Amino acid sequence: MSSSFEKFQKRRVVTSYFSVVLSVFLVLFLLGILGLFVINSKRISDNFKEDIVMTVFLKSDVNDSIVKAFDDELRLASFAKDFKYVSKEEAAERHKEVIGEDFMTFLGVNPLQNSYDIHLKAAFVTNQSFAKIEKRLRKNEAIADIVYDKQLVTLVNDNVKKISMWILIISGIFAFVSVLLINSSMRLSIYSNRFIIKTMQLVGATKSFIRKPFIARSIILGMIGAVLAVAALVGVLAYIELNYPDLEILKDSAQTGIVLVAVLILGALIPWISTFFATQRFLNLRTDDLY
After folding, report:
1. Residue 49: partners with Cβ closer than 8 Å, 6 or more residues away
2. Closest listed residue to residue 33, CA positions, set 171, 227, 222, 164
3. Residues contacting 31, CB < 8 A, separation 6+
């Protein structure tokens, strides 16, 4: 009979430990994902901005030397992230792929113009900057026209501001909820040992002596959950880097490392604080109040 009771007690203890580790793991994993998203949000938004194209059409009578001079001008320009020269033959091939037929067969000539596709640096992707750059480029007599999507520029910038604001709000809420969830798990774990705590106190053990093993155990369980969370986060980073290399998720390794270390620190700090106050609460209760 006693053997069955001991097995039951062991299963209950193991289940309690597992639930604490699982809750710490899930909370810290989600918190780490949010942290990684926050530190990479600017790079992600910059990638969206730098995908917007400004197309500069050249006049048909422009010779190679003028094209070369314009190419050098763009290479030295502070606003250009990258650019590509698109000949009218290449442009015709693109149109053919898009519309599915060769429009030159019935036109007889290629009406398209030689052009440059320019991607601006993220800092210059505003309507004001686009307008200034357009005004500057139009001074070049070799340019026939300049085209870009003004509505898309406005939309991207407005959405980036809104998303940034919501990220800050969600981060604050999620951090608060994370602390509450881990705290609740630790309090439940201590609650199951409330009679042991009171018994130790009744036989003369000091409060610090009683708290010490519970705090040590909670830190160990928290660190196990944190290590598992870090391992899962590294796996997610590796997957994103492998499948979406354009995001350059591992470009800023220092900040990524800070997030992973912060997860480990929180894995020890939050359980320590939660266990300290939970044990203190039961230490201050009268024996009758334990029921």
Report:
1. 120, 122, 125, 156, 157, 160
2. 171
3. 174, 175, 178, 263, 266
β-partners of residue 84 are 117
Query: What's the topology of domain 53-148?
Result: Alpha-Beta Plaits (3.30.70)
- Rounded-to-integer distance, Cα 6 and Cα 32, Å: 38
Contacts by 161-166 with C-beta closer than 8 Å and gap 24+?
A: 163/41, 163/45, 164/41, 164/45
Instruction: Please list the pLDDT of the chain residue by residue as tens digits (291 residues).
Output: 445 545 544 565 556 677 778 888 888 888 888 888 888 777 778 888 888 899 999 888 888 888 888 888 888 889 999 999 888 888 777 777 777 666 666 666 767 788 889 999 988 988 899 899 999 888 888 888 999 888 888 888 788 778 777 877 877 787 777 777 777 777 777 777 777 777 777 787 777 887 888 888 888 988 999 999 999 999 999 988 888 777 777 777 888 899 899 999 988 888 888 888 878 777 766 655 555
Give which of 59, 163, 152 is closest to 112, Cα–Cα: 59
Q: Give span(s): CATH 3.30.70.3040, the chain.
A: 53-148
Rounded CA separation 137/130 (Å)? 10
The set of residues, in sequence order, having a beta carbon less than 8 Å from that of 174 and lying 6+ positions away, is: 30, 31, 34
The amino acid at 145:
D
**The two structure tokens encoding residue 41:** 């949000």
Contact at 8 Å (CB) between 120 and 54?
yes
Outline where 64-149 has alpha helix (H): 64-76, 88-99, 104-107, 127-137
Cβ atoms of 227 and 21 closer than 8 Å: no
Q: Token match 């500057």: residue?
A: 136
